[in-house]
Amino acid sequence: MASLSQNVAAVRPGALSGRSELLDRYFYFCMSLLFAAIVGIGFSRTVNQNLFHPALARPVILWFHAGAFSAWILFFIFQSTLVRTGNVKWHRFFGWFGAALGSVMVPLGITTAVIMGRFDTVQLHLADPTFLSIPFLDMLVFGVSLALAILWRKKPEFHRRLLFLATCQLLDAPFGRFDFLFNNNLFYVALNLVMLLGVARDVVLNRRVHTVYRYALPILIAGQVLAIYLWHGAPAWWVSITHNILG
User: Which contacts of 242-247 are long-range, i.e. CB under 8 A and separated by 24 or more positions?
Assistant: First the structure.
């Protein structure tokens, strides 16, 4: 899969200034490291008491969930590094592993959300069924973005931005580990600011916003608003659905 091939297309000599060329060449690689830092810092706040040494053992599926989603971040770094070092052939070869991993993450994410919702209700007595709107949106956005990225794998300008957005959408989980962001519903604002770094890159280098961002970002923000509404607004039909899902 020709993923993340952001720097394969050669830039005409002298077409970019030194700083712009660095931005063009290293943006997605630097973003992969930023993703890892956000995930590491965010989950370091809760992983010990919620996974490694919990007072009450968590369902086993949570370990698979954590492993798969961590593997995706490492894979993003790995693929970005391959492109950055010019190993495009290997990058495309391993891209199919990413397609398989991402395809597993969607049903795994949904299943984990449901099982953990039941666990929180029955074991921890912290019922919050309408919160399912948040992980469900994450998996919808991630899955659709990944599918389009695979479909347009031979169009690197579309492909890399779709994978960038797909990965950004997963950041609400680590951002949500910060009490201030979670309690004030700002975790989506935080991840959107990371997404806007991609927009800023386009504006600086190309003097325009790419089609992927022009269409995707309004849809994503609308979805986020809807997810927050379903969670906190708890309309009767959504409450009914979530209670049926959680049993």
Answer: 242/117, 242/129, 242/130, 242/132, 243/129, 245/114, 245/117, 245/129, 245/132, 246/114, 246/117, 246/118, 246/121, 246/129, 246/132, 247/118
